[in-house]
């Protein structure tokens, strides 16, 4: 059997990081088995669904690198098919027309509350023959089992049992003939050939209600996997009080997509003690058995650590391409051709220990700045009269030196020794001259990246 998974977000808001992880798990499971990963936009809530949110979801998935098969489908567009299934259940005696008004339903519940009985509505129309039906508006309800228990097997949660007397005769079609979400989900999953439903465990109770439709139609049921939600570091459901919650926010903060995929995959799923892994490894390793039952806690430090490892491991040209995409997504100007060349040349010293793209770009400030460089207050303090004089002595030696690291180290070291000072004492003035800041890559890395002409010109500016 070919695996088919789906991600079915509602376009009532941006792509939440919890939804992104659900999409990732579905994507990994399908891709690792040569199956299909489908995208369905559950836009039946017309009042809250917007085109802007729909596009934000597509953009978020695209940024994360979670490609889907075929075109995204719209749940609302399939309303006629959903209604057709409801009428099939009606014709088969698995559902019925209910003519109870809202006032009658509320009166039933008030009486039940007073008697401390179940408030699940028991419709008086459940077994009334068609001949006795009035000419009045009605909803279509499914006939829920009234006795016994239902047990569903969940790959993550194990066997889960629900008392049937806790299932209501849920509505399938509203009085205007429109289908409800619960019906639409089941029909769409069946029609799309979904074999595995991987979603948050907040949908676990829904599985028992949706199971009634599968039973009523005699359809094969998909494998269920209800994954625990993501909590914040304080053990409470992840929300804005913990920081960024949307995929777009993490993109804007400059986290690399590969790092996000790695971290989100590890959030609630494990493969031994492996923390850092590639997409190829994740696809090969990912299985539903590795998902834990307990809520995962979002740890920003672990996210940064994983992202830093991915930045360091990424090919230089590919990393530069991602940096350009990040700048475009955040409304920053693109690098010039000259900056591109210098960034590529210096990537070896820029990407080490950088955990986000802003950190990497900050380290590249010496490349992206223009002469004459204005040192910040801390670095300017290193450019006293003595330091300027030493830099002016260093300039002609650099002009004639072979532009290799060991040679440059020797030239600077001999200059420092001539003034009876340690090499580190020259680092401050050189950083001020080359980068205009006290914190930067090593002075020799900056020299090699900038080249002889630019290095000498900056030192001459600082020593003047």
Layout of strands and helices, then pairs:
Blueprint: E1 4-7, H1 17-31, E2 36-41, H2 51-64, E3 73-74, H3 79-91, E4 95-98, H4 102-114, E5 139-142, E6 149-154, E7 158-163, E8 171-173, H5 181-191, E9 196-200, H6 204-217, E10 223-227, E11 230-231, H7 247-252, H8 257-266, H9 279-285, E12 296-297, H10 300-313, H11 316-329, H12 337-350, H13 357-363, H14 365-368, H15 377-380, H16 385-400, H17 405-418, H18 423-434, H19 443-463
Parallel strand pairs: 1-2, 2-3, 9-10, 11-12
Antiparallel strand pairs: 4-5, 5-8, 6-7
Helix pairs in contact: 3-5, 5-6, 8-10, 12-19, 16-17, 16-19, 18-19
What structural keywords apply?
12 strands, 464 residues, 11% strand
The first-to-last residue Cα distance is 76 Å
Structural class: mainly alpha
Percent range for β-strand residues: 5-15%
Q: So how many helices?
A: 19
Number of strands: 12
What is the radius of gyration computed over CA atoms, rounded to a whole number of angstroms?
Answer: 32 Å
Report the major sheet: 3 strands, parallel
State mean pLDDT (0 to 100 scale). Answer: 95
Stretches where pLDDT is under 50 for at least 5 consecutive residues are: none
Q: Going across the biggest sheet, name each strand in turn.
A: 1-2-3
Overall form: elongated
**Helix coverage percent of residues?**
40-55%
């Amino acid at each position: 059997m070919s695996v088919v998974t789906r991600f079915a977000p509602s376009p009532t808001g941006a792509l939440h990081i919890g939804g992104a992880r659900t999409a990732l798990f579905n994507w990994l499971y399908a891709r690792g088995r040569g199956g299909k990963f489908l995208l369905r936009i559950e836009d039946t809530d017309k009042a809250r669904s917007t085109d802007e949110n729909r596009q934000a979801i597509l953009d978020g998935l695209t940024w994360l690198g979670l490609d889907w098969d075929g075109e995204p489908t719209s749940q609302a567009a399939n309303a006629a098919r959903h209604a057709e299934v409801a009428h099939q259940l009606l014709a088969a005696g698995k559902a019925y027309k209910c003519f109870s008004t809202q006032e009658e339903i509320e009166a039933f519940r008030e009486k039940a509350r007073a008697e401390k009985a179940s408030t699940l509505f028991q419709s008086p129309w459940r077994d009334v023959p068609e001949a006795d039906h009035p000419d009045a508006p009605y909803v279509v309800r499914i006939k829920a089992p009234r006795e016994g228990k239902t047990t569903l097997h969940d790959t993550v949660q194990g066997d889960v049992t629900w008392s049937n007397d806790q299932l209501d005769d849920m509505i399938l079609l509203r009085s205007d003939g429109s289908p409800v979400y619960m019906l639409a989900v089941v029909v769409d999953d069946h029609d799309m050939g979904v074999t595995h439903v991987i979603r948050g465990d907040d949908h676990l109770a829904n599985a028992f209600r949706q199971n009634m439709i599968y039973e009523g139609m005699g359809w094969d049921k998909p494998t269920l996997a209800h994954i625990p939600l993501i909590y914040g570091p304080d053990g409470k459901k992840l929300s804005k009080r913990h920081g960024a919650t949307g995929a777009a926010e993490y993109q804007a903060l400059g986290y690399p997509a590969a790092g996000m995929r790695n971290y989100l995959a590890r959030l609630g799923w494990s493969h031994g003690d492996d923390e850092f892994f590639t997409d190829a490894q994740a696809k090969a390793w990912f299985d539903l058995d590795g998902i834990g039952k307990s809520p995962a806690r979002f740890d920003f430090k672990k996210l940064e650590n994983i992202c830093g490892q991915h930045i360091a491991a990424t090919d230089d040209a590919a990393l530069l391409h991602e940096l350009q995409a990040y700048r475009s997504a955040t409304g920053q100007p693109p690098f010039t051709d000259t900056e591109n060349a210098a960034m590529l040349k210096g990537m070896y010293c820029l990407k080490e220990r950088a955990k986000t793209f802003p950190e990497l770009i900050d380290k590249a400030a010496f490349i992206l700045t223009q002469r004459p460089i204005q040192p910040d207050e801390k670095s300017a303090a290193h450019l006293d009269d003595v330091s300027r004089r030493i830099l002016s002595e260093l300039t002609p030696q650099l002009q004639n030196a072979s532009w290799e690291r060991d040679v440059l180290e020797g030239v600077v070291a001999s200059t420092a020794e001539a003034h009876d000072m340690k090499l580190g004492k020259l680092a401050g003035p050189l950083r001020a001259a080359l980068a205009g800041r006290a914190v930067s890559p090593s002075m020799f890395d900056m020299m090699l990246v900038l080249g002889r002409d630019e290095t000498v010109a900056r030192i001459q500016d600082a020593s003047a």
